[in-house]
Fold this sequence. Notes:
Elements (H helix, E strand, L loop, with lengths): L5 H14 L6 E7 L1 H9 L5 H9 L15 H10 L2 E3 L4 E6 L2 E10 L6
Antiparallel strand pairs: 1-4, 2-4, 3-4
Helix pairs in contact: 2-3
Amino acid sequence: LEHFKEPRLKESLLPYWRSLLKPGGIFRIIVPDAEGMLQQYANSEISFEHLRLITFGGQDYGGNYHFTMFSRDGLRTLLAECGFETKDYSAVARPNGDCLEMEIIAKKTGKPSD
């Protein structure tokens, strides 16, 4: 999700992906955990350059760009606005290479424009 601009996620991608699911269908999301990485930076566990690299991508080839970052509440709100129900995160601040990631399961609800 971080590889897309937020307006595109809201207006077309998330609604499209939702339309592919049956009612109650599962959408599993794993994205960089910006809160976890900012906490590492605040605790002097990583440098600013490392934080910049893992939050905005290496930008060394097409597609290696991050256009947005998500807070835990922000991602949950975005999903709800697009007709997904979420519960607790199944992972936060989980190491994935040099990055920390978070994982949440979203279910298709009976709202926006079924």
